[in-house]
Design a protein that fits this description.
340 residues, 51% helix, alpha/beta, single chain, two-stranded antiparallel ribbon, 12% strand, TIM Barrel
Length: 340
């Protein structure tokens, strides 16, 4: 463990140059990923076949030598394992049958959650054996609010209006859904850690659409429950929380949820990021479009983050996932610039 740079940072150390990985680092910008994706047939086959999932997870490690590998899967395998239908439409994204308030009390009945996710646990176990000793293995789940938005609307929407309306109109139903998702998501993370994950990340990609009261009830409370439950079983495993778009609400998120580190989106000013870093490790927060642009825009973005945050506990990352149209040469340039 001592030789894993990323775990040192999660323990509060400053490690120059900072460890580096990218959200969605196994993805369509890589030709080797696209080839395997075609061979797999469907995106879910890629997620649920350990041979494919292990290979896809390892691809960016081989190519760039990142300090962490993140399990290749999807946040929506959790509702899938609870018996909700799930498919991915090419060019459009996930589709589910929208859940009704009446269905929530029976969610998961008659379905063996962990048996459904056994291939994911096998993938984690195999990755632990195949990754370089110095590479941190990160497991993950979607935060209950973000997962719920897809379950309620049946797809991604620009501002998650269907889910917000559902929550306002059906406060008891949304609370029950988020509680159920927190319970099973904690179990899911515990099993990933049991299988060999060194750290885990909770992705709350739609945290930024909520007002303050809803953020407390629908983002903070369920994530705090996940953290509490995971820590009962694995008290020393670091947990990264990523409430994308939280803005000024980032400030109390670590204390209220108990996460080890804060993942910051690119809209967080570096002055705010530095204040947040005073409370513990931060991760981020390069704009993914700077990585597409390359050149001076990329160099300035990297340098500004290192200048502002490099003398504290920092994991260098993007402020959200890398996009499919990112040139590989720009990723190589970013890695070189962070590590030089």
């Amino acid at each position: 463990m001592q030789d894993k740079k990323l775990l040192k940072v999660l323990g509060g150390e400053t490690v120059p140059p900072p460890p580096l990985w990218m959200m969605r680092q196994a993805g369509r910008y890589l030709p080797e990923y696209r080839a395997l994706r075609e061979k797999a047939g469907s995106f879910l086959d890629l997620c649920y076949n350990p041979d494919f999932a292990v290979e896809v997870t390892l691809q960016p490690i081989r190519r760039f030598g990142f300090d962490a590998a993140i399990l290749f899967s999807d946040i929506l395998v959790v509702p899938h394992a609870l018996g909700r239908d799930l498919r991915f439409v090419e060019g459009e994204g996930p589709r589910l049958t929208p859940i009704s308030a009446a269905e929530i009390p029976r969610l998961g009945e008659g379905h063996d959650f962990h048996a459904h996710l056994a291939p994911v646990y096998e993938t984690v176990s195999r990755l632990r054996k195949e990754l370089p000793q110095e590479t941190t293995l990160i497991g993950f789940c979607g935060a209950p609010w973000t997962v719920a938005t897809y379950m309620i609307a049946g797809r991604g929407t620009p501002d998650q209006a269907p889910s917000r309306l559902f929550g306002y109109r059906e406060p008891e139903a949304i609370a029950a859904l988020l509680s159920k998702l927190a319970e099973v998501s904690a179990d899911y993370l515990i099993r990933q850690i049991d299988a060999g994950a060194d750290a885990v990340q909770i992705f709350d990609s739609w945290a930024g659409v909520l007002d303050e009261a809803s953020f407390e009830a629908w983002c903070v409370k369920p994530v705090a429950e996940i953290v509490r439950k995971v820590r009962q079983k694995h008290p020393k495993t670091p947990i990264i929380g990523f409430p994308r778009g939280a803005g000024s609400l980032y400030s109390g998120y670590r204390d209220k949820t108990g996460v080890t580190a804060l993942g910051l989106d690119w809209s967080v000013p570096l002055s705010q990021a530095r204040a947040l870093q005073a409370g513990g490790p931060v991760q981020g927060n390069l704009d993914p479009l700077r990585l597409i642009a390359g050149g001076r825009a990329l160099d300035e973005g990297v340098d500004n983050i290192l200048q502002a945050l490099g003398d504290g506990p920092l994991i260098f990352n993007l402020g959200h996932g890398i996009t499919p149209d990112t040139p590989i040469a720009h990723v190589e340039r970013m890695v070189e610039r962070v590590r030089r």
